[in-house]
Amino acid sequence: MTVSIGQRVIGGGRPAYVIAEIGLNHNGDVELAKRLIDVAADAGAQAVKFQKRTPELATPAHMRDVPRETPWGTMTYLDYRRRVEFDREQYIEVSDHAVLRGLQWFASPWDEPSVAFLEDLGVAAHKVASACLTDHGLLRALRDTGKTVILSTGMSTTEQIDAAIEVLGTDRLLLMHATSTYPMEPEEANLRMIPSLRDRYPGVPVGYSGHERGLQVSLAAVALGAVAVERHVTLDRTMWGSDHAASLEPAGLQHLVRDIRVIEAALGDGVKRVYEGELAPMAKLRRVTT
Hints:
By secondary structure, the protein is an alpha/beta fold.
């Protein structure tokens, strides 16, 4: 079970693909976004991910006029969405920085015009946010790009996932088990869904998108076979914004990638053998050798 993003193949026993989600943690600041890209590259991640919205389309009607306290003063939720959205020139600047740091980059488009926007910029893949899994018009637009689609499955029923996959197909699909609580408590992780999704959709690689505090749940997901891991990244979890509290700081992302690689080495291949390091203890301790 493999899928390709650009020249990189994911699954099939290869090292887990680590996605550092910047999302909106840049707070509309290009220089902050570049610093977060540097954090991802320095930690050994393979990709960074953003979010792309057309605010007038992607903001639910009942939320548009709701007041929101922001670092720029009180504004409507719609104006806040406009304030933190990167335009084309800003996206070119941050995407160029990602490529220069050796990272693939893509985003979660929340509406169909955003798909065209990202395609024009040459993204490596597309990510479907859990909130958009039931938007079949968006899914069709993503399918028609011919690029790999990464589908998060939080806040969704099995029937809704089935319907989304019916639209997207399975040829260029990476499923991500997720629970859309920010931050998520361990008892809501339900990591056994990783093998369950693998069994339900044969041939589709399955990863994990996490919103928990700490590293343990994401590391357990790798031990259960997740071929990709996505975590939000921030410079400081106390920064203003909705996702910072469920994000990893730079040291946390470094430790995550390090420990994923340790776990992958420790998993081995399932073939029983006597290792060279066991020979001396065996000679010393084993009385019966047959």
